[in-house]
User: Which sequence fits this backbone?
RNA sequence: GGCGUUGUAGCUCAGUUGGUUAGAGCGCCGCCCUGUCACGGCGGAGGUCGAGGGUUCGAGCCCCUUCAACGUCGCCA
C-alpha cells in the first residue's frame, strides 16, 4: 500500500480531497465496462464511490476487467473532480471519482444468488439462507443502524434517569405458567432442566428487593410458541423496574423514553402527553385493547335502536342488555361493493369468530339483506349515530359483548387497511390502562390472570376481592403504537401474604406456590419495597420506526415461521454421545425426518 | 393443529379452453464498445414446472396426497 495515501471510506470521498492520493476498500457494487474505460462503484458500510479505471493503467485495467459483483478490492488512486455534466447527484460522493493507480483483489465472490445492489423483494427463505448478503443491502443496513440508534438513545436515557443495567441469567428455573418454556437439559443433574427466561420478570423484582432501585436491561426473552410477523422465539425487551414509585411514575418515565427515542433516534417529535384510554373505552370504541388510533371509524353501539325492532334477530340480542352488544361499523365508500365482496366480507367476519355479519348500503335508498326489516325510525337513527353518508356501507355485529367487540375491532382494522388509513409514516401512540386483574379462561372456565400473577390490583377494591374477583381492576398499563402492543407493565404485589392470596385465587395451593415460586415468596418476606415496571418490545418498536411489517427485518439473524434458522439449519440432530451425556433418550423420531 | 395465498431458469415473474421444442427481464458466460452511473450492442448457456400419485391419446394447466414459504386463527403468564 502506498504509505503516502490517506485511507478513506466509500462514503467520504469529497471535493475537499481533490488531487490527494487515497486508499479505499470495499465491495464491487457495480461494474460498467465500456471497453476502453471501466467504472467501478465501490461500496462499504458508509456509501458508494465511483472508481475510474483508465486504459493507460494497463495492469490495473486488466484486473478490473475480471472483477465481478461483490468481489472485494482495495484501490489506491487520486481523487479528481468528475468532468462537468457527469456528476451524480444521487450519490453523496457524486462530485468526485477516484482514478485508480493500484488495484488489489482482496477476495473473489461467488456469483450472488440475488442482487445485493438493490432492495428488490426476494423470497425470504433465500434472504435468510444467505443472510450475510441480505445484510449488505441498503434496507438491512438502514434497519440495523436504526435499531442501534434507538437502543443507544434508550440506554442513555435510562442512564441519565438513574437506572443501572443489570444482566440476569439465561439459565433459570422453569415456572410453568404463560408461554411454553425453552428447556435446557442439565448434564450435572441427571433428569433436571433449566428454562430459558420468557422474561426476567421475577429476577427484576428480586433486584428491587435487593435494593437496586432503578433497573433496566436490554434483555433477551425466549418463548416456545409459534412465530408470527411480529413474534419470534427469541426477542429483545428493554426491561425496566423501579422501587418506591406508583403507576404514574413508571408511565412518565416510559413515555419519556419512547418520545426521546423518536426525537433523538428518528428526528420525529411526538406530541405529549400521550393519549390515555381505559381498557373499557378501548374495547367499546375500537374493539381492541391495542387500538390503532391512526384512523377513526369507531364502533358505535346501536342496541337501543333495536329494542322494539321488527328485525327479531337484533331485537332478541338487544333484549339481553349489557351482556351483549350490537355494533355498527361504518365502511366508507363500500356501497359500491358487489354482493360477492360482501359475501367475502362475511366470510372474513366468520374467520374472526362472528356468527354472522349484517350490512346495509347507503344511497338514495338503503339497501342490503336486512334493509327490509328496518323501520324509518331505525334507518334515521342508524344514519345519525354512525354519521354514514351516501356511498358508505354499515356493518352490524351482534353477539355477546366480548365477542362482538373483538370481531368488530378486527373488521375495523381490516377496513382501515383496505382504505389505506394505516400510514406507516404516522405514529399514533396511546396508553391503555385499567385492565381487569383476572379473567375467565374460556377453555376451562377457571379464573386466570389477565397480565401476570404479580400484578397488583388498584387500591380500594378490597370489598370485592373475594366476592367478585372478575370486577377487579389492575395497576396495569400497556403502551400501544399503531395497533401494536409495544409494551406492558404493572405495579407489583410487594406484600408476601397478599401475593399468596392472589396465587390462591388462581387455584394454586401452598405446596404448588412453594415448589414454583418459593424462592420469590420468601424474598418478598424480607422487606420488599413497593415497586413496578414495564418492558418494551424493542423489535416491534424498531419495526414500526423503520416502516417494516415484520420484526424479522429488524433482526440480524431471525428464525423463520417454523422457528428454524435456515442459514445455520438449526435446530439439528445431535450425536448420540451428547445425548447420553445429558441422560436423554429420544423416544420416537418420525420416519420422514432427516 | 385449522384456514388463506404462493411454489415455473440463480433472482423477479408470464404461461390462454389441457395440444408441437415452456417464455420474458435481470443475473451468468463469450465477443464488441473511452464518460457511464439500472451504461449500451451482438451471441450463448441455463428448467425434476416443489414432490408423489391419478385422469387423459396428450398435463406447467384438471383431480388426490404431500412438502415448503409467507400471512392468519389457536397459542403467545
Assistant:
Amino acid at each position: 500500500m502506498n504509505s503516502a495515501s490517506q485511507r478513506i471510506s466509500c462514503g467520504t470521498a469529497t471535493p475537499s480531497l481533490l488531487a490527494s492520493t487515497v486508499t479505499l476498500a470495499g465491495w464491487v457494487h457495480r461494474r460498467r465496462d465500456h471497453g476502453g474505460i471501466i467504472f467501478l462503484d465501490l461500496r462499504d458500510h458508509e456509501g458508494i464511490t465511483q472508481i475510474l479505471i483508465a486504459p493507460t493503467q494497463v495492469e490495473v485495467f486488466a484486473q478490473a476487467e475480471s472483477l465481478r459483483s461483490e468481489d472485494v478490492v482495495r484501490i489506491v488512486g487520486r481523487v479528481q473532480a468528475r468532468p462537468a455534466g457527469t456528476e451524480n447527484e444521487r450519490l453523496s460522493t457524486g462530485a468526485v471519482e477516484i482514478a485508480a493507480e493500484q488495484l488489489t483483489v482482496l477476495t473473489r465472490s461467488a456469483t450472488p444468488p440475488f442482487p445485493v445492489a438493490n432492495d428488490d423483494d426476494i423470497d425470504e427463505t433465500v434472504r435468510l439462507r444467505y443472510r450475510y448478503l441480505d445484510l449488505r443491502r441498503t434496507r438491512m443496513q438502514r434497519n440495523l443502524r436504526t435499531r442501534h440508534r434507538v437502543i443507544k438513545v434508550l440506554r442513555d436515557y435510562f442512564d441519565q434517569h438513574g437506572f443501572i443495567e443489570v444482566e440476569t441469567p439465561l439459565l433459570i428455573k422453569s415456572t410453568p405458567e404463560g408461554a411454553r418454556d425453552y428447556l435446557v437439559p442439565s448434564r450435572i443433574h441427571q433428569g433436571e432442566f433449566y428454562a430459558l427466561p420468557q422474561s426476567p420478570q421475577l429476577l427484576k423484582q428480586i433486584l428491587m428487593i435487593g435494593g437496586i432501585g432503578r433497573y433496566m436491561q436490554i434483555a433477551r426473552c425466549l418463548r416456545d410458541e409459534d412465530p408470527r410477523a411480529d413474534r419470534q422465539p427469541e426477542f429483545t425487551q428493554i426491561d425496566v423496574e423501579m422501587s418506591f414509585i406508583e403507576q404514574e411514575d413508571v408511565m412518565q418515565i416510559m413515555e419519556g423514553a419512547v418520545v426521546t427515542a423518536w426525537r433523538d433516534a428518528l428526528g420525529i417529535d411526538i406530541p405529549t402527553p400521550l393519549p390515555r384510554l381505559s381498557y373499557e373505552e378501548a374495547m367499546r370504541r375500537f374493539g381492541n385493547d391495542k387500538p390503532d388510533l391512526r384512523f377513526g371509524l369507531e364502533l358505535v353501539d346501536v342496541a337501543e335502536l333495536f329494542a322494539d325492532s321488527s328485525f327479531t334477530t337484533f331485537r332478541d340480542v338487544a333484549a339481553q342488555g349489557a351482556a351483549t352488544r350490537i355494533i355498527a361499523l361504518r365502511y366508507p365508500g363500500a356501497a359500491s361493493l358487489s354482493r360477492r365482496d360482501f359475501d367475502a366480507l362475511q366470510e372474513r367476519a366468520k374467520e374472526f369468530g362472528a356468527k354472522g355479519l349484517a350490512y346495509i348500503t347507503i344511497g338514495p335508498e338503503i339497501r342490503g339483506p336486512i334493509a327490509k326489516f328496518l323501520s324509518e325510525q331505525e334507518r334515521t337513527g342508524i344514519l345519525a349515530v354512525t354519521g354514514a353518508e351516501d356511498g358508505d356501507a354499515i356493518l352490524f355485529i351482534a353477539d355477546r359483548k366480548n365477542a362482538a367487540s373483538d370481531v368488530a375491532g378486527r373488521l375495523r382494522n381490516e377496513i382501515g387497511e383496505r382504505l389505506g388509513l394505516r400510514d406507516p409514516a404516522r405514529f399514533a401512540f396511546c396508553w391503555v390502562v385499567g385492565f381487569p386483574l383476572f379473567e375467565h379462561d374460556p377453555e376451562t372456565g377457571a379464573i386466570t390472570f389477565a397480565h401476570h400473577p404479580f400484578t397488583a390490583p388498584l387500591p380500594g377494591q378490597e370489598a370485592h376481592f373475594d366476592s367478585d374477583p372478575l370486577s377487579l381492576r389492575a395497576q396495569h398499563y400497556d403502551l400501544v403504537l399503531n395497533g401494536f402492543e409495544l409494551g406492558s407493565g404493572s405495579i407489583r404485589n410487594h406484600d408476601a401474604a397478599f401475593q399468596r392470596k392472589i396465587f390462591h385465587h388462581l387455584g394454586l395451593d401452598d405446596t404448588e406456590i412453594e415448589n414454583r415460586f418459593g424462592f420469590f415468596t420468601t424474598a418478598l418476606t424480607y422487606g420488599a419495597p413497593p415497586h413496578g415496571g414495564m418492558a418494551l418490545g424493542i423489535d416491534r418498536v424498531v419495526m414500526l420506526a423503520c416502516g417494516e411489517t415484520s420484526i424479522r427485518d429488524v433482526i440480524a439473524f431471525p428464525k423463520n415461521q417454523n422457528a428454524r434458522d435456515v442459514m445455520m439449519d438449526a435446530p439439528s440432530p445431535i450425536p448420540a454421545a451428547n445425548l447420553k451425556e445429558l441422560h436423554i433418550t429420544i423416544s420416537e423420531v418420525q420416519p420422514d425426518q432427516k
